Amino acid sequence: MPTALLALKKSGGLIHYYVFEYANKNESPVERVKSKVVKRLYHLDVDFVVQLGRIVRTTGPNRHQVVLDIRVNSYGQKHFAHENVLYCLITKVPREEFAIKKKLMEILACPIDKHHPLELHVFEEKEEIVEGLIVCPKCLRWYPIRDEIPEMLPDNLRKENEDLPFLKKWKDKVPEEILSKGKPFALKTGSKKS
Ligand SMILES: [Zn+2]
Question: How far is the CA of 108 from the centre of ligand 1 (A)?
Fold first, then answer.
């Protein structure tokens, strides 16, 4: 899998995205996965087409493994952090195969200063980390994990009105240093720092 993504150049490429999904009898697990991915990739301004989606196997009551073939046409030059985001998307495999936490932290670097390793704070965990925070100890930048996907975006793509509420929501669990001095947004000042 990592090889598949490393081959994904700025000009695009094909991602085979494997994921487990729950669905009720009257729902299509493929459509559920598709709508999540579409929402996320649109948000990130990635030009893509879902070419194919199917159930690989059913692993329990209403639980299916689904694969999507996602053709990524392009993601802009300034969106270099998408490599990280897509990497997370593609390596989001079930716990049975390996612990996402460990794997994630092995591969992720700060998109700003390339510092590695980063710190992980888990706020909500189901089969995977649903919500959490990734912190760069070098520059004190923090990156939210939302809907199980780490958003490793550069500052110019961050939205204060989306990110600050996230920090507020988890302020009891966020390290004090990040609350007061985190970048690109901190809670106490609420102002943008560079
Ligand atoms: Zn950093």
Answer: 11
Same domain, 175 and 150: yes
CA 77 to ligand 1 center in whole angstroms: 20
Confidence of residue 67 (pLDDT cuts 50, 70, 90): confident
d(CA 191, ligand 1 centre) in Å = 18
In terms of phi and psi (left: phi > 0; alpha: psi -120 to 50; beta: otherwise), the region of 98 is beta
pTM of the model: 0.53
Q: Tell how strand 63-74 and strand 47-60 pair up.
A: antiparallel
102 part of a folded domain:
no
103 domain residue, yes or no: no
* 121 found inside a domain: yes
